[in-house]
Design brief:
Helix content is 63%, strand content 7%. The chain contains 54 helices and 28 strands. The strands form nine sheets. It has a seven-stranded mixed beta sheet with strand order 6-7-23-8-18-11-12, with helices on both faces. Helix 30 packs across helix 36. The protein is elongated, with a radius of gyration of 62 Å.
Length: 1890
C-alpha cells in the first residue's frame, strides 16, 4: 500500500511548531498526488494550510492510533519518528506519571523532580527473576536483565547511565547498585553490599554540588565495578573516576554551591570535635559564599554530615583518619580566605599575622613564613641559575587557588583509593557488573575545554552505542533468516578522528602546550590551517578568530579557545608543594608522597584558573614522573580508551536520563528541552535505525489472535503460519513491506498502523451492523409496545365513555327523584309552618283572656285581704292601749298599799315585847300547825281515795267528751281550712312568682358566669393539654436522647473494646509472626551450620587410617532438647570427640535463641495479661452498666416490695378482722340480728367501712414515707455510681428526692389560681343548691387544676408500682437462679470430690500424694480467687507469692522424685539379688519330689489380645533402627494410600508411652530427641518435595496432639473416652517438649508454604493475568523490541486450570496425609493470599494488563477460585477475603471513570486498596480498542482529593513474603491406641505390643 493512500480525510498528522516542536492536526480532505498543500485543522479548532516542500514533496508525519499512545516501548509504535516519540513520552510522563520508557535496548528515564514510592524493597522483589519485557519499564528491570545475563551467559555486564546535569544520572546509578545489593546479597559476613551502598553518600559529599540545573549534580564521572563470586553474590567493588571539576573549589556561579562536604562541615562546626578547626558559618568563607545560595531546600547539612561520617566508619576509615580529612577540608576553607595585597605593580604581600593563614598553617603543620613567602613568590630555573621572583597580586591569588584545588584533588583521589580498598575482596572475582555514571552531551553559550572533553567522551560512547544497536539488529535478522540489507546509520568515526587522530585537535593542543611561547591564539591558527576546508566536520565562526565549530553527532558546538592551554597543562607551584611535604601532619604527607614536579617543562606557567583534574589509572611507581608530565587531554584520552575497552568487553545496557524542564518543576514537560536531549543521547538514532528496517515484529500466534477478525472462515487453516502468510498477501500487496521469519513476521514502518486501520474498520462495520440490528429490534419492540398500548388505551377510553353515559343517565333519573321529594318537602314544610302559626296565635289569645280574668279576680281578692288586715290591726291597737292603762292603774294602787303595810311592820318590829309575844304565839302556833298538819294528812288520804274513784268515773266521762270535742274541732278546723285555703294559695302563688323572677335572674347570671367559666376552663384545659403534649414530647425527646446516648456509649465502648481486641489480636499475630520468623532464621542457621560442617569435614578433617566413623542418626542439635539432669550429663560425657567440637557452637546458638524465645514468651505473657486486663475492664464496664441500670430502678423495686408487703399484711389483717366479726355475730346475735337492714348489721357495716378507710389512709402514708426513704437512699447511690449517660435520670431522681416535683406541683397550682379565676364568694343557698344537685359541676371543682395533677400523679404512681413489681420479680427470679447455680456448683464439687477420691484410690501410692497435692493447690487457688476477686492489687501479690510457692514446691517435689527413683532402682537391684539368693537356698533345701510337685514362683498367665494397653516396647539399641525405618526411609506415598493417617505419629507415641510406663526418663528423652532430629534431617534432605513436607507436618501435628490428649491435663481430656484417659502419661510432664514440637511444626509449615509457593510462583502470572480464560475478550496489542510473554495458551503454557489442578493436588495430598482441617484452611488462606498478592503486584507493574477486558478476565478467574473453595468446603477459611484487593482492582478496571459520582463510587468500593494502588491502576489504565476511553488527569486528581484523608501505608505493592502466623488448634483423635496394628511393610518387627 502506498504511503500517500493513508493521507485521507480525518487522518491525523504532525506539523512543526516553534513553541511545542510538533503540533497535531487533522486532514480536512483527502490528499491527492501532486497537491502542493494540505488543508488541516488543529486541535484547538483552527484551520491552517500546510505548504509542502516543492523540492522534496515530503508529507508530514502520520500520527499513531490512540491505542498505541502511551506504550511501554517506543519501538512498538507503528510510526517511528520524532513527534511520535516525543508525544508518547509526554503522555506517559504527564498523564500516567510514568518516568521510565523503553526505546529498544535503551531505558529512557525522565527526572520527575519528586520522590516516588517505586524503589522500595517490595518493588525490587517484584522485578527479581522477571523477564525484562514482562514488567513495566524500570531501572530495576535493566538491573535484573544485567544480573540475569551475567549469570546465564557468564559474561560481564555494564550499565551506561548518561544525561546532562540534573537529569537524574546519579540517582539511577544508585538505584541500580541498590538492586544488586538487595537481590544478590553478600558472600561473606562483612556485609559488602552495605559497604557498596555506603560509598554513595561519601562520593556525593566530596564530588556532588548544587548547580543551577540540579541540587545534587555529580561534578565527576565514575565507573563502579561490582564484583560477584561463582554463586553470583557480591564480594566487592572498585571505582574509577573521571574529570573532577576542581575549579568549583574556588569559584561558583550565582545560585550554585561548592561541594557538599564544605557546607556539612560548617553546619557541624558547633560539635566539640570540630572546635579545633575554628570554622564558622558557610557565608563567612570565600569559597562557600560566592554562589549566594548556601542552603538547599529540604536538606539538613548537619544530618548529612552524620550520614557521611557513618559511611566513613562503615567503610573502615577510623575516627583519626576522618578527623584528618576534615582538618584538610577546614584548611582549604581558611586558605581561600587568605587576603593578598599589592606591594607594587609587580609584587604582592600577605599582611603579617594573617588569621586565616595562621590557622591554615596550624592545621596543615607547616611554618607560617614559608607558606606566606611562596604564596607571593615563584622560583625560575635556567640552565645555570635559579631565581626567586615576586609575583603580582593576580598571579598570587591564582597560585593560592591552584594550591587549594590541588589539595582537594589529592584528597579526593585519596578518599577514592581508600573506598576501593574497603570494597576490595580477597575472594577471587568471577564476574562483575559495571555502572557508568557519566555526563551527557553539553552545549552552552560559551563552551570551553570542559565541554570539549565531555562531548569527546560522548562521541566515543555514541559510537559504541551505534555499533551495539546495529549488531543487535543484524543478529535478529540472521536469527529469523530475514534477507539482510545494509542499514545506513550515522557513523561518527570522522568526528572522533578529528579530535584524537594524529594532528587532531588534542594532538595540536599538546604540541602547543610544549611550545615555549604557546598561546590560545597560535593554537587556533594551527587548527584553522590544518582542518579548515579539509574536514567537513570542522568550521570557523564568521566573526571570531578565537573559536572553532565541530559538528558532533547531536549538534554543532562552538568552542572558545581562551583557557584551553592553561586547563590542559594543570600546573601548580612546586615550592608550595615542597612546603606541604615538610608538614608534620601525617595525612598531608601521605597525600603528597608520590608528588613530583608540577611545573611546565617549557618555562614559567601563566597565571589563571584550571578546572579539570584527572584521577589516573593505577600505574607502576617507576612511571610516576612520566605520568605526571602528561597533559590533561592526554590523560583523559587514555582513561577514555581504557573505559571503552572495558565496555566493549562487556554486554552494555543503556539508561538515558532526560531533564524535562530547567526550573526543576515536578512533572512538567518542556518539549524543546526534551527533543534537544533526545537528539543528543542517541534515542532518536535508535529509532531511526529501527525504522530503517522492519521495526514492527509479531509472532505468528499473536498476529493470528490480533487480526483474526480480518480473516474469513475459509482462510483459517490448521497451520497458523500458512494462514498468516495467505491473509497477509491479500491484505498488503507490496511484499517489500513485510518479511516472514522463522517465528515472527517483520513489518516496515506504518504497516501495523495500516493493519490496525483495517481491523478498526472491520470492527467498526461489525459494530454498525450490530447497532443497526439492535436498534431495529429496539424500535420494533417499541412499536409493538406502542401498538399494544394504543389498543389498551382505546379499550379503556371506550369503556370510560360507556361508564360516563350510564352514570349520566343514573344521575338524571336520580335528579328527577330528588326534585320530586324536594318539592314535596318544601310544600309540606310551608303547610306545617302555617299550621304552627295559627295554633300559636290561638294559644296567645286564649292565654291573654284568661290572664285578664285572673288578674281581676286577683285584685279583688287582694283588696279584701287588705281590708281584713287593716281592720284587725286597728282593733288590736285599741285593745293593747286599754289593757296597758288598766294594768298601770292596778300597779299604782298595789304599790301604795304595800308601802303602808311595810311602814306598819317596821314599827312593830322595833318593840321587844312584841318579839316575845310573837315567840310565845309562834310556839303555840307551831303546835297547832302540827296538829293541823296531821289532820290535813288524814283528810288528804281520804280525799285521795275519793279522787281516785272520781277520776275513774270522770275519765270515762272525759273520754266521751274529748271525743266529741275532737269531732267538733275537726269540723271547725275543716271549715276554717276551707275558708283560708284560697288566701294561702294566693299568697303562695305570689311568693312563687316572685321567686321565679329572682330565679330567672339568678339563672341568667349563673349561666353567664358558667359559660364564661366554661370557656376559661376549656382554654385552660387546652393550654394544659398543649403543655402536657409539650412536656410529653420533651420527655420523649429526653428519653430518646438518654437511650441514644446510652446506646452510643454502649456502641462506643463496644467499638473501643473491639478495636482494642483487634489491636491486641494484631499485636499477638505480629508477635507470632516475629516468633515464627525467628524459628525460620534458626532453621536457616542450623542448615548453614550443617553445610559449613560438611565443607569442613570434606576439606580439613580427613579421617586417619584405621579410624572408622560410626554411623549416627542423631543431629548435631541433640543437646538442644535434653533436660539438664544427671543422666544428660552422664550421656554427654560418654559422647565422641567430634560431638565435643561442635557442642559449644550449638549451645551458644541455642542459648541465644533460648534467650530470645524467653523474651518472646515474656512479651507474649505481657500481651496476654494486657488482653486479660482489657477483658476484665470490659467486663467491669458491662457489670457497672448493669449495676447502674439496676440501681436506677432500685427505688421502684423497693417501693414495689414495700407495697406488696403492706398489701399482704393488710389483707391478712382484714381477713382476720372479718372472721372475728363474723364469729362474734354468730355467737352473740340471734338468727335475725345480723340480717341485712338490722341495726347490728348497719353498725358493723359502718365500722367496717370506717376501718377500711382509715386503713387505706394509713397504708398510703406508710408507702409514701417508705418510698421517699428508699428514693433518698437510691439517690445517694446514684450520685456515686451513675455514669455520664444516666445524667438525666440522676436529675429526675434528685428532683424526686428533694421534693422539687411537689414544689413544682404547688407552684403550678398557684399559677393556675390566677386573678381571672377569682369570683365573689358563693352564698349558702347557692352552695347548698350545687351540693344537692344530682350532677355536680366538675369544672367548678377543678378550677385550680388539681384533678388533672392528681390524675397524672396517680398514673405515674401506677407505672412506678408496675415497674417495681416487674423488677422485683426479675430480682427474685435471678436470686432463685443464683441459688440454683450455687446448689448445682455444690453438687458438681461434691461429684468432683468423689471422682477425685475414686481416682486417687485407683492410683499407685506414690502418685496419690502428687495428685492430692495438685488437687489441694487447685482448690486453694480457686478459693483465693474468690477471696481476692474484689481486690486486684492484693490478688496480684497473692498470685505472685502463690506461683513462687508452687515453683518451690515443684522443685522440692522434683528433687524428692529423683531421690525416690534412685532408691527404687537400688531397691529393685537389691530385691533381684535377694530373690536370686532365696531361689538358690530353696533349691538346695527342698527334695526332688517337692521341687516337681510344688511350684517355686507363680506362673505368668499370658494376656489376651483384647487386653493390649496401647504401648509398644522396644530395646534401647533398636532406637536408631526405629528412627531409620519409621522416619528416614519411610515413603510418604505408600503410607498415605495404604495405611491410616498419622500412623508414624501413633507408633512413636505408643513407644513413648511404654518408656513413660517403665519410668525411664533417659529413654523418653532420647526417643523424643531422635524423633525431632530425624524429622529435621529428612526435611533437610527432601525439603523441596511437597508430599514429604506435608506428610511430616501432619504427623508432627498428630504427635503434638497425642502429647496433649494423653498428658493428663483436664483441658485436653474433655473429649477422651474412659479407655483413653487410662492411657494418659503417668510419670513425666512433657510440656517443654510440646513447645519444641510446636516450634518444629511451625518450621515445617513455613517450609511447606515455601515449597507450595515455589511450585505456584511460575503459574500465577500466566494463569491469572496472561492467559485468556475467556477467549476473544481481549486482543493482543502491538509490542516492541522487548516482547512480553504471550497470553495465548500454547503448549506448555500455564493456565488457570493449571493453578486449580495444582491446588486440588495440594488439597488431596494433605487430606490423604490426615492434616487437620483447620491447618488445611490456614494453608489454603496463605496460598490464596500469595496468588492475590502476586497477581495484583504484577497488575500494578504492567501497563498492558490494565484494561477493561483484563478486568473481566481477572474477575472470571477469581470466580473460578471461589468455586474451587466452595467445592472443597473452604469458604469459611478466610481465603476469599485475601483476594479482595485483587477483586477490587479488577472492578476498578471495569467501572465507569468519568463523573464525580463515579469517583465517589470508586472511593467507597475500593476500601481494600491503598490510595497509591488506586491511582496507579487509573494511571496505567490503557484501552485495548479504540472504543474504550482513557482516564482523564482531572478524574485522577479528584480521586486523590477524596482519598487524601485516608490513614494508610504509602506502600504500593503487597508483601508477597508475608506469612500469616500459624496456629495448631487441639484436635483429639478418636482412634483407640490398643486397636492400632503395625504393618509388616514398615519393618518394625522389633516392636512388641504391650
Amino acid at each position: 500500500m502506498a504511503a500517500s493512500e493513508l493521507y485521507t480525510k480525518y487522518a491525523r498528522v504532525w506539523i512543526p511548531d516553534a513553541d511545542e516542536v510538533w503540533k497535531s492536526a487533522e486532514l480536512l480532505k483527502d490528499y491527492k498526488q501532486g497537491d502542493a498543500s494540505l488543508q488541516l485543522r488543529l486541535e484547538d479548532g483552527t484551520d491552517v494550510e500546510h505548504k509542502l516542500d516543492p523540492k522534496t514533496k515530503n508529507l508530514p508525519h502520520l500520527r499513531n492510533p490512540d491505542i498505541l499512545v502511551g506504550e511501554n516501548d517506543l519501538t512498538a509504535l507503528s510510526y517511528l519518528h520524532e513527534p511520535a516519540v516525543l508525544h508518547n513520552l509526554k503522555v506517559r510522563f504527564i498523564d500516567s506519571k510514568l518516568i521510565y520508557t523503553y526505546c529498544g535496548i535503551v531505558l529512557v528515564a525522565i527526572n520527575p523532580y519528586e520522590t516516588l514510592p517505586i524503589y522500595g524493597t517490595d518493588i525490587i522483589n517484584a522485578y527479581s527473576g522477571q523477564n525484562m519485557g514482562d514488567m513495566d519499564p524500570h531501572i530495576f528491570a535493566v538491573a535484573e536483565e544485567a544480573y540475569k545475563q551475567m549469570a546465564r551467559d557468564e559474561r560481564n555486564q555494564s550499565i551506561i547511565v548518561s544525561g546532562e546535569s540534573g537529569a537524574g544520572k546519579t540517582v539511577s546509578a544508585k538505584y541500580a547498585m541498590r538492586y544488586f545489593a538487595t537481590v544478590s546479597g553478600s558472600a561473606s559476613e562483612a556485609n559488602v553490599e552495605e559497604k557498596v551502598l555506603a560509598s554513595n553518600p561519601i562520593m556525593e559529599a566530596i564530588g556532588n554540588a548544587k548547580t543551577t540545573r540540579n541540587d545534587n549534580s555529580s561534578r565527576f564521572g565514575k565507573y563502579i565495578e561490582i564484583g560477584f563470586d561463582r554463586r553470583y553474590r557480591i564480594i566487592g567493588a572498585n571505582m574509577r573516576t573521571y574529570l573532577l571539576e576542581k575549579s568549583r573549589v574556588v569559584f561558583q556561579a550565582d545560585e550554585e554551591r561548592n561541594y557538599h562536604i564544605f557546607y556539612q562541615l560548617c553546619a557541624s562546626a558547633h560539635l566539640p570535635e570540630f572546635k579545633a578547626l575554628k570554622l564558622g558559618a558557610a557565608n563567612t568563607f570565600n569559597c562557600t559564599k560566592q554562589g549566594r545560595s548556601p542552603v538547599i531546600d529540604g536538606v539538613d547539612d548537619a544530618k548529612e554530615m552524620a550520614t557521611t561520617r557513618h559511611a566513613f566508619s562503615l567503610l573502615g576509615i577510623n575516627e583519626s583518619y576522618q578527623m584528618g580529612i576534615f582538618q584538610v577540608l577546614g584548611a582549604i576553607l581558611h586558605l581561600c580566605n587568605v587576603d593578598i595585597k599589592d606591594r607594587d605593580s609587580d609584587s604582592s604581600v600577605i599582611p603579617p599575622n594573617n588569621g586565616h593563614l595562621t590557622i591554615f598553617c596550624e592545621l596543615m603543620g607547616v611554618t607560617y613564613q614559608d607558606m606566606s613567602h611562596w604564596l607571593c613568590h615563584k622560583k625560575l630555573k635556567t640552565a645555570s641559575e635559579t631565581y626567586i621572583k615576586p609575583i603580582p597580586k593576580l598571579q598570587a591569588i591564582n597560585a593560592r587557588d591552584a594550591l587549594a584545588k590541588h589539595i582537594y584533588a589529592k584528597l579526593f583521589n585519596w578518599i577514592v583509593d581508600h573506598v576501593n580498598q574497603a570494597l576490595h575482596s580477597t575472594v577471587k572475582q568471577h564476574s562483575f557488573i559495571g555502572v557508568l555514571d557519566i555526563y551527557g552531551f553539553e552545549t552552552f553559550e560559551i563552551n570551553s575545554f570542559e565541554q570539549f572533553c565531555i562531548n569527546y567522551a560522548n562521541e566515543k560512547l555514541q559510537q559504541q552505542f551505534n555499533m551495539h544497536v546495529f549488531k543487535l539488529e543484524q543478529e535478529e535478522y540472521m536469527k529469523e533468516q530475514i534477507p539482510w540489507t545494509l542499514i545506513d546509520f550515522y557513523d561518527n568515526q570522522p568526528c572522533i578522528n578529528l579530535i584524537e587522530a594524529k594532528m587532531g585537535v588534542l594532538d595540536l593542543l599538546d604540541e602547543e602546550c610544549r611550545m615555549p611561547k604557546g598561546s590560545d591564539d597560535t593554537w587556533a591558527q594551527k587548527l584553522y590551517n590544518t582542518h579548515l576546508n579539509k574536514c567537513a566536520l570542522f568550521q570557523k565562526p564568521r566573526l571570531s578568530n578565537k573559536a572553532f565549530i565541530i559538528q558532533h553527532f547531536a549538534d554543532k558546538v562552538e568552542y572558545q579557545c581562551d583557557g584551553f592551554l592553561e586547563k590542559n597543562k594543570d600546573t601548580v607551584n612546586e615550592e608550595q608543594i615542597n612546603v606541604l611535604k615538610t608538614s608534620k601532619f601525617e595525612l598531608l604527607v601521605e597525600l603528597f608522597q608520590d608528588e613530583e614536579k608540577g611545573t611546565s617543562p617549557t618555562g614559567p606557567p601563566p597565571g589563571g584558573r584550571t578546572r579539570l583534574s584527572i584521577k589516573p589509572d593505577k600505574t607502576r611507581a617507576g612511571q610516576a614522573s612520566k605520568e605526571h608530565k602528561k597533559t590533561v587531554g592526554l590523560q583523559f584520552r587514555n582513561s577514555l580508551q581504557l573505559l571503552m575497552e572495558t565496555l566493549n568487553a562487556t554486554t552494555p545496557h543503556y539508561v538515558r536520563c532526560i531533564k524535562p524542564n530547567d526550573h526543576k518543576y515536578p512533572f512538567t514537560f518542556d518539549p524543546r528541552r526534551a527533543v534537544q536531549q533526545l537528539r543528543a543521547c542517541g534515542v532518536l538514532e535508535t529509532i531511526r535505525i529501527s525504522a530503517a528496517g522492519f521495526p514492527s515484529r509479531w509472532t505468528y500466534q499473536e498476529f493470528f489472535s490480533r487480526y483474526r477478525v480480518l480473516m474469513k472462515q475459509k482462510d483459517v487453516l490448521s497451520d497458523k503460519k500458512l494462514t498468516c502468510r495467505n491473509v497477509l498477501e491479500k491484505l498488503i500487496k507490496d511484499q517489500d513491506k513485510y518479511q516472514f521469519g522463522k517465528t515472527k513476521i517483520f513489518f516496515r514502518a506504518g504497516q501495523v498502523a495500516y493493519l490496525e486501520k483495517l481491523r478498526a474498520d472491520k470492527l467498526r462495520a461489525a459494530c454498525i451492523r450490530i447497532q443497526k440490528t439492535i436498534r431495529c429490534w429496539l424500535v420494533r419492540k417499541k412499536y409493538l409496545r406502542m401498538k399494544s398500548a394504543a389498543i389498551t388505551i382505546q379499550r379503556y377510553v371506550r369503556g370510560h365513555q360507556a361508564r360516563c353515559l350510564a352514570k349520566f343517565m343514573r344521575r338524571t333519573r336520580a335528579a328527577i327523584i330528588i326534585q320530586k321529594y324536594q318539592r314535596m318537602y318544601v310544600e309540606r314544610k310551608r303547610y306545617k309552618r302555617l299550621q304552627a302559626a295559627a295554633l300559636i296565635i290561638q294559644c296567645i289569645l286564649r292565654a291573654y283572656t284568661a290572664k285578664q280574668k285572673y288578674q281581676g279576680m286577683l285584685r279583688e281578692h287582694k283588696a279584701i285581704i287588705i281590708q281584713k288586715m287593716v281592720r284587725g290591726w286597728l282593733a288590736r291597737q285599741w285593745y293593747k292601749r286599754s289593757l296597758e292603762a288598766i294594768v298601770y292603774l292596778q300597779c299604782c294602787i298595789r304599790r301604795m298599799k304595800a308601802r303602808r303595810e311595810l311602814k306598819k311592820l317596821k314599827i312593830e318590829a322595833r318593840s321587844v315585847e312584841h318579839y316575845k309575844k310573837l315567840n310565845i304565839g309562834m310556839e303555840n302556833k307551831i303546835m297547832q300547825l302540827q296538829r293541823k298538819v296531821d289532820e290535813q294528812h288524814r283528810e288528804n288520804k281520804n280525799m285521795h281515795e275519793r279522787l281516785s274513784s272520781l277520776e275513774n268515773s270522770c275519765a270515762v266521762e272525759t273520754e266521751k267528751l274529748r271525743n266529741e270535742v275532737a269531732r267538733l274541732r275537726g269540723t271547725e278546723e275543716e271549715a276554717r281550712n276551707n275558708a283560708n285555703r284560697i288566701n294561702t294559695l294566693q299568697e303562695e302563688l305570689a311568693r312563687l312568682t316572685k321567686e321565679l323572677q329572682e330565679t330567672k335572674v339568678e339563672k341568667k347570671t349563673i349561666e353567664d358566669w358558667a359559660e364564661k367559666y366554661r370557656d376559661e376552663m376549656e382554654q385552660m384545659v387546652s393550654d394544659l393539654k398543649e403543655k402536657n403534649t409539650l412536656l410529653k414530647s420533651e420527655k420523649d425527646d429526653l428519653n430518646r436522647m438518654i437511650q441514644e446516648q446510652a446506646k452510643e456509649m454502649k456502641e462506643k465502648m463496644e467499638r473501643v473494646l473491639l478495636e482494642e481486641t483487634k489491636q491486641l489480636e494484631t499485636d499477638l499475630n505480629e508477635e507470632r509472626s516475629r516468633y515464627q520468623n525467628l524459628l525460620s532464621e534458626h532453621l536457616r542457621l542450623e542448615e548453614r551450620y550443617d553445610d559449613l560442617k560438611e565443607e569442613m569435614t570434606l576439606t580439613v578433617n580427613v579421617p586417619k587410617p584405621g579410624h572408622k566413623r560410626t554411623d549416627s542418626t542423631h543431629s548435631s542439635n541433640e543437646s538442644e532438647y535434653t533436660y539438664n539432669s544427671e543422666f544428660a550429663e552422664s550421656e554427654e560425657s560418654s559422647r565422641g570427640g567430634e560431638d565435643v567440637t561442635k557442642a559449644p557452637l550449638d549451645m551458644s546458638l541455642f542459648l541465644k535463641l533460648q534467650k530470645r524465645v524467653t523474651e518472646l514468651e515474656q512479651e507474649k505473657q505481657a500481651l496476654q495479661s494486657e488482653l486479660d486486663r482489657k477483658e476484665d475492664q470490659a467486663q467491669k464496664t458491662r457489670a457497672r452498666e448493669e449495676d447502674d441500670h439496676k440501681r436506677a430502678r432500685g427505688a421502684e423495686l423497693e417501693y414495689e416490695s414495700l407495697k406488696r408487703q403492706e398489701l399482704e399484711s393488710e389483707n391478712k389483717k382484714l381477713k382476720h378482722n372479718l372472721n372475728e366479726m363474723r364469729r362474734s355475730i354468730s355467737e352473740k346475735g340471734g338468727p335475725g340480728s345480723a340480717a341485712p337492714g338490722s341495726p347490728a348489721y348497719k353498725v358493723l357495716l359502718d365500722q367496717l367501712n370506717s376501718s377500711n378507710e382509715e386503713l387505706e389512709v394509713r397504708k398510703e402514708e406508710v408507702l409514701i414515707l417508705r418510698s421517699q426513704l428508699v428514693s433518698q437512699k437510691e439517690a445517694m447511690q446514684h450520685k456515686e455510681t451513675m455514669t455520664e449517660a444516666m445524667s438525666y435520670m440522676e436529675d429526675v431522681q434528685k428532683m424526686k428526692d428533694a421534693g422539687e416535683i411537689t414544689q413544682a406541683y404547688i407552684g403550678l397550682k398557684e399559677t393556675n389560681r390566677s386573678p381571672k379565676f377569682l369570683r365573689r364568694p358563693l352564698e349558702v343557698n347557692d352552695l347548698v343548691t350545687r351540693l344537692r344537685s344530682p350532677t355536680q359541676d366538675y369544672h367548678a371543682l377543678n378550677e385550680d387544676g388539681e384533678l388533672w395533677l392528681v390524675y397524672e400523679g396517680l398514673k405515674e404512681t401506677n407505672r412506678l408500682l408496675e415497674s417495681q413489681l416487674q423488677t422485683q420479680r426479675k430480682a427474685h427470679d435471678n436470686e432463685v437462679e443464683s441459688l440454683r447455680g450455687e446448689l448445682q456448683s455444690v453438687k458438681e464439687e461434691n461429684n468432683r470430690q468423689q471422682q477425685l477420691l475414686a481416682q486417687n484410690l485407683q492410683l499407685p501410692p506414690e502418685a496419690r500424694i502428687e495428685a492430692s497435692l495438685q488437687h489441694e493447690i487447685t482448690r486453694l487457688t480457686n478459693e483465693n480467687l474468690e477471696l481476692y476477686a474484689g481486690d486486684l492489687k492484693n490478688y496480684r501479690q497473692y498470685r505472685m507469692s502463690l506461683f513462687q510457692r508452687i515453683i518451690d514446691l515443684m522443685e522440692q517435689l522434683e528433687k524428692q522424685d529423683k531421690t525416690v527413683r534412685k532408691l527404687k532402682k537400688q531397691l529393685k537391684v537389691f530385691a533381684k539379688k535377694i530373690g536370686e539368693l532365696e531361689v538358690g537356698g530353696q533349691t538346695e533345701n527342698v527334695s526332688p519330689g517337692q521341687t516337681i510337685d510344688e511350684p517355686i514362683r507363680p506362673v505368668n498367665i499370658p494376656r489376651k489380645e483384647k487386653d493390649f494397653q496401647g504401648m509398644l516396647e522396644y530395646k534401647k539399641d533398636d532406637e536408631p533402627k526405629l528412627v531409620k525405618n519409621l522416619i528416614l526411609e519411610l515413603k510418604p506415598r505408600g503410607v498415605a494410600v495404604n495405611l491410616i493417617p498419622g500412623l508414624p505419629a501413633y507408633i512413636l507415641f505408643m513407644c513413648l508411652r511404654h518408656a513413660d510406663y517403665v519410668n525411664d526418663d533417659q529413654k523418653v528423652r532420647t526417643l523424643l530427641t531422635s524423633t525431632i532430629n530425624g524429622i529435621k534431617k529428612i526435611l533437610k534432605k527432601r525439603g523441596d518435595d511437597f508430599e514429604t513436607v506435608s506428610f511430616w507436618l501432619s504427623n508432627t501435628c498428630r504427635f503434638l496432639h497425642c502429647l496433649k490428649q494423653y498428658s493428663g491435663e483436664e483441658s485436653f481430656m474433655k473429649h477422651n473416652t474412659t479407655r483413653q484417659n487410662d492411657h494418659c502419661l503417668t510419670n513425666f510432664d512433657l510440656a517443654e517438649y510440646r513447645q519444641v514440637l510446636s516450634d518444629l511444626a511451625i518450621q515445617i509449615y513455613q517450609q511447606l508454604i515455601k515449597c507450595m509457593e515455589n511450585i505456584l510462583q511460575s503459574m500465577i502470572v500466566p494463569g491469572m493475568l496472561e492467559h485468556e480464560t475467556i477467549q476473544g475478550v481481549s486482543g493482543v496489542k502491538p509490542t516492541g523490541l522487548r516482547k512480553r510473554t504471550s497470553s495465548i495458551a500454547d503448549e506448555g503454557t500455564y493456565t488457570l486450570d493449571s493453578i486449580l489442578r495444582q491446588l486440588s493436588s495440594f488439597h488431596s495430598t494433605m487430606c490423604q496425609h490426615g492434616t487437620d482441617p483447620e491447618l488445611i484452611k490456614q494453608v489454603v488462606k496463605q496460598m490464596f493470599y500469595i496468588i492475590g498478592a502476586v497477581t495484583l503486584n504484577n497488575l500494578l507493574l504492567r501497563k498492558d494488563m490494565c484494561s477493561w477486558s483484563k478486568g473481566m478476565q481477572i474477575r472470571y478467574n477469581v470466580s473460578q477460585l471461589e468455586e474451587w473453595l466452595r467445592d472443597k468446603n473452604l469458604m469459611n477459611s478466610g481465603a476469599k477475603e485475601t483476594l479482595e484487593p485483587l477483586i477490587q482492582a479488577a472492578q476498578l478496571l471495569q467501572v465507569k471513570k468519568k463523573t464525580d459520582e463515579d469517583a465517589e463510587a470508586i472511593c467507597s468500593m475500593c476500601n481494600a486498596l491503598t490510595t497509591a494502588q488506586i491511582v496507579k491502576v487509573l494511571n496505567l489504565y490503557t484501552p485495548v480498542n479504540e472504543f474504550e476511553e482513557r482516564v482523564t488527569v482531572l478524574f485522577i486528581r479528584t480521586i486523590q482529593t477524596r482519598l487524601r484523608d485516608r490513614k494508610e501505608s504509602p506502600q504500593l505493592l503487597m508483601d508477597t513474603k508475608n506469612i500469616y502466623p500459624v496456629t495448631f488448634p487441639f484436635n483429639p483423635s478418636s482412634l483407640a491406641l490398643e486397636t492400632i496394628q503395625i504393618p509388616s511393610s514398615l519393618n518394625l518387627g522389633f516392636l512388641t505390643r504391650v
